[in-house]
# Entry
Amino acid sequence: MAAACAIAISTLLSPVEARVRNFASAKDVQSLKFLSANHMPVKVLVVYSPNQKNQNFVITLMNIVADMHDKGLVKPEDAFKVHVIPSWEMQEADYAFIREKVGAERVKKYVEFNNVY
# Structure
């Protein structure tokens, strides 16, 4: 019992270290990498919140996924979409902005919007 208490106390008093990664901006995102075919996603989820200014990240992500498919990097049987979860403040103008920046055909083919709200 004393040994367990000593371990618990030494654990509490020892410094805890953690690696902290810097936040990646939309400019830093250039590609997606899957370790193997066993790691192919069914969907890529992203929350789109215009008030949080993440439009560029979301649009870049959509374009990366579309480019992967268009360049033949994804087999037809492994095709997947970006599933956008809109924030409460999303308006029709925000959807139009995405269609304008990504392209209406690409959005139709590679993006789906969560319509729970």
About this structure: Residues 55-70 form the longest helix (16 residues). Confidence is low (pLDDT under 50) at residues 3-14.
